[in-house]
């Protein structure tokens, strides 16, 4: 990076875009196709029964969980809807019980384990988009670094082309092939500049607490549960009382939630300490029936 400031920006623009260009192409491609993640999964599992919305999916899932994971400390149930035709269940076991985490797919109508070929389906595209399917947090850091590199390429590209308006209308088909491609690059780069800037910034924001955790630490310190309550409407679970108690029926709770949300449907059910006197049931509203997805939740006594 020798010479003038503009030459340095040119070097940074060229190498920054070249190094992360192909990676970001894969990220953009999988991010776009991930919009159809549920439909892709259904296409790759033709054995699945098509069920748009079973009214007893929650009760069937809880009955199945009593058989499959009665000792779990938490059940997280994702209810089916028009796109997700299976009930997804996540089981979190207490320390000492292996595996510590399980994921199950159930038939909405009766809670039976879903019988279909094993495939990641559309979830592969969804997770590759932001973590490259790399274990741990390495993939997310790589995606964050690539996003920052793209922002640098956008800013330096704007610095290089001081005559943005002039370059946009410049096309010299009779010049060398390199010059022609450069003119095309300039024109297309200016057209898509707002999109690339917006998509990059909004791609970094969801993982900003991973890349820059200091604001979270300053506001909440060592209380991550308080952050989850404030932002995601997830109150910290109560400690188990150690006394057995039956779990209350789920149907009246679902009806009460719909009444409070003026017809809005619950999309997630979180049950902590099932079978214990300190059990709680958290209902979270689905985000498929509204534009603004500010979390809405209701916490019930589990007994």
Spans where pLDDT lies below 50 across 5 or more residues: none
Structural class: alpha+beta
How many strand elements? 6
Q: What is the N-to-C order of secondary-structure elements (H for helix, E for strand)?
A: HHHEEEHHHHHHHHEEE
Strand order of the largest sheet: 3-2-1-4-5-6
Mean pLDDT: 87
Residue share in helix: 40-55%
In percent terms, what proportion of residues is strand?
5-15%
Main pleated-sheet profile: 6 strands, antiparallel
Number of helical runs?
11
Radius of gyration (Å): 25 Å
In whole angstroms, the N-to-C terminal distance is: 67 Å
**Shape field:** elongated
SSE order and pairing:
Elements: H1 5-33, H2 37-44, H3 57-68, E1 74-78, E2 87-92, E3 101-106, H4 122-131, H5 138-160, H6 164-168, H7 177-204, H8 208-211, H9 214-220, H10 224-232, H11 251-260, E4 266-272, E5 280-285, E6 297-301
Antiparallel strand pairs: 1-2, 1-4, 2-3, 4-5, 5-6
Helix pairs in contact: 1-4, 1-5, 2-4, 5-7
At a glance:
The chain has 303 residues and is α+β, with helices and mostly antiparallel strands. The protein has 11 helices and 6 strands. The chain has a 6-stranded antiparallel beta sheet with strand order 3-2-1-4-5-6.
Describe the structure.
- With 303 residues, the protein is an alpha+beta fold.
- It has helices at residues 5-33, 37-44, 57-68, 122-131, 138-160, 164-168, 177-204, 208-211, 214-220, 224-232, 251-260; strands at residues 74-78, 87-92, 101-106, 266-272, 280-285, 297-301.
- The chain has a six-stranded antiparallel sheet.
- Helix 1 runs antiparallel to helix 4 (122-131), helix 1 packs across helix 5 (138-160) and helix 2 (37-44) packs across helix 4 (122-131).
- The protein starts with a helix and ends with a strand.
- The model has no long low-confidence stretch (mean pLDDT 87).
């Amino acid at each position: 990076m020798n010479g003038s400031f503009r030459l340095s920006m040119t070097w940074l623009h060229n190498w920054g875009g070249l190094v992360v260009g192909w990676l970001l192409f894969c990220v953009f491609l999988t991010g776009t196709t991930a919009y159809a993640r549920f439909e892709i999964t259904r296409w790759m599992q033709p054995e699945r029964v098509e069920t748009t919305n079973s009214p007893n999916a929650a009760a069937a899932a809880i009955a199945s969980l009593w058989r499959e994971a009665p000792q779990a400390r938490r059940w997280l149930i994702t209810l089916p809807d028009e796109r997700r035709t299976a009930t997804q269940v996540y089981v979190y076991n207490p320390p000492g019980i292996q595996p510590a985490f399980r994921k199950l797919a159930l038939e909405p109508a009766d809670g039976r384990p879903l019988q279909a070929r094993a495939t990641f389906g559309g979830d592969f595209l969804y997770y590759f988009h932001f973590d490259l399917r790399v274990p741990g947090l390495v993939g997310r850091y790589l995606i964050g670094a690539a996003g920052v590199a793209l922002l640098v390429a956008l800013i330096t590209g704007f610095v290089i082309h001081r005559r943005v308006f002039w370059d946009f209308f410049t096309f010299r088909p009779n010049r060398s092939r390199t010059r022609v491609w450069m003119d095309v690059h300039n024109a297309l780069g200016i057209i898509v500049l707002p999109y690339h800037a917006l998509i990059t910034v909004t791609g970094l924001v969801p993982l900003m607490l991973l890349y820059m955790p200091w604001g979270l630490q300053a506001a909440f310190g060592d209380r991550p549960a308080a952050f989850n309550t404030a932002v995601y409407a997830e109150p910290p679970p109560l400690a188990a009382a150690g006394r057995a108690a039956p779990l209350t029926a789920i149907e009246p709770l679902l009806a009460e939630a719909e009444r409070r949300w003026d017809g809005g449907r619950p999309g997630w059910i979180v049950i902590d300490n099932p079978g214990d006197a300190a059990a709680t049931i958290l209902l979270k509203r689905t985000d498929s029936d509204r534009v603004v997805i500010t979390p809405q939740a209701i916490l019930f006594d589990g007994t």
